[in-house]
Amino acid sequence: MHPSHRSDKAALESLLAHALTSAASAIVITDRDGKIVWINEAFTRLCGYGADELIGRTPAILKSGKQAGLFYAQLWKTILAGEVWQGEIVDQRKDGSLYTVDEIITPLVDRQGAVTHFIAIQHDVTMRKQESERDHQLACQDFLTSLPNRANFSSVHQQAVLQAQNSHSVLATLFLDLDNFKPVNDTLGHGVGDELLIAVADRLRSAVRHTDLVARIGGDEFAILLTELPSVDVARQLAQKLVDTIARSFILQGQKIHVSASIGIAVYPKDGKEPEALLKHADKAMYHAKCEGGNNYQFYTPDMESACPERTSPRAAAVKR
After folding, report:
1. Does the annotation mark 110 as catalytic?
2. Annotated domain spans of the chain
3. How many other CB atoms are there within 10 angstroms of residue 161's CB atom?
4. 142-320, what's its fold?
5. What is this structure's pTM?
6. Alpha helices per DSSP H over the chain
7. pLDDT per residue over 175-192, tens digit each?
8. pLDDT tens, position by position, 271-302
9. Sheet harboring 26-31: ordered strands across?
10. 10 Å Cβ neighbour count for 221?
11. CATH architecture, domain 3-131
12. Which residue among the candidates 220, 244, 271, 303 is catalytic per the annotation?
């Protein structure tokens, strides 16, 4: 080889080594058995381990437990076959914190086509994942009470009805509206009204079973989903518990505030086989409870359709408030 060619090759190899070492993406090279033989500076910054702590070890040191054994089995099957693998992995830093990477693992083969090493390039997507999760949470969560919102409730409600159909079980949909909430807003201000709604949400959360779902679906209206009921009596008992819970006085900004709740109950499958029908019938029963003076619960019955005809749909009611 001509001396100038050897010099050019050496310069190129030096440039490539410098490029890999200085690359912004985390890069790790392992042998066929997965033992780390080389890492760049970005990799050490990302995981928190020094090169001396990683060389000779396997990437298993970074396992977070977020991926099952089957996940890694499929990964190894792919790369040992000489194929490129790409996907997201949640790893654990030296300090115990978790991070998410978008990773590409490329097998390196010799002249006979046998896999000898693997090179993995990682892009840190932790912030992107966290922002995506926050956006999803905001889309599904009521901004004031942190309860699930109407859209979230509707989605869960749909799934719960399907599950009840498959398991031939009973579920109940409760529609709860606060009695005399408007006077609190009008006389004490919206700030106190908001505090009251937050306090009511906390009480509702504490009163239901851990398997139940409480959501704020608009204004001072809440929906509660009771699944896998052994009997309708459980819904009756819980509704009374909720009425009693809300009837206890609230202390807000040094003032004692009294409100009560009217609750309507629709039971699947007796009162409807679709989520919208159940919520509509629970709303109708709730308004009947208001007609009875409030501070009580009522189960839906078909004759309620002709009672209190001025009641609007729950969707329209939420818009009006």
Report:
1. no
2. 3-131, 142-320
3. 22
4. Alpha-Beta Plaits (3.30.70)
5. 0.61
6. 3-22, 41-47, 51-54, 69-80, 126-140, 150-167, 181-188, 190-207, 232-247, 275-291, 314-320
7. 999 998 999 988 899 999
8. 999 999 999 999 999 999 999 999 999 999 99
9. 36-39, 26-31, 115-124, 98-109, 85-92
10. 20
11. 2-Layer Sandwich (3.30)
12. 220
